[in-house]
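Could you join me in thinking about how sequence relates to backbone shape in a protein? To get us started, please write out a protein record for me. Would you write everything just below, so we can both look at the same thing?
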Amino acid sequence: MHHVATAALPVAIGLLVCAAAARAVLWWGLGDEQIQRTAREHLEPLCAWCIGVLLVYVFARTAAGGSLLVSLFVGATLTAAILALWQADQEAAPAEQRVAEPATAELPTEPAPPDDAPPRGLWSRGLSG
C-alpha cells in the first residue's frame, strides 16, 4: 500500500493544479469563449476526482502503516483547498457572468385523436380480437 500512497499524492496535487487553472480562467476571463466553456465543464470533475484520489491516499497511507494524523492533515488540507475552488463559483462570479440555464421551449403537442379513431402505439393493440 505504500506504493499506492506514494503514487496517489502527486496525482491529487496535479488534479488540484488543473482545477486551480480552470478556476483562474473563469475568474479572470482568460481566453476565448471555448476555453471558458471547457474550464467551466471540467472544473467540477477535476475537483471530484481530486477528492477521490485524496481519499485513496489517506486510506493507502494509513494501511501501509503511516501516521494517521499526518495523512489526515495532508488530506484535509488539500480537500479544503479543492472545495474552496469548487464552491467559489457560487460566491465570486457576478450574476451576469453566470451561465443561465437554457429556457425550456414548449414542445408542440399533437392534437388528441377523435374518440372513434383506433388507438395508436406499441401497447394499444389489445389481446382481444
About this structure: The helical segments are 2-28, 33-63, 68-92. Residues 23 and 85 are 7 Å apart (CA to CA). Residues 2-92 form one domain. The chain has a mean pLDDT of 81.
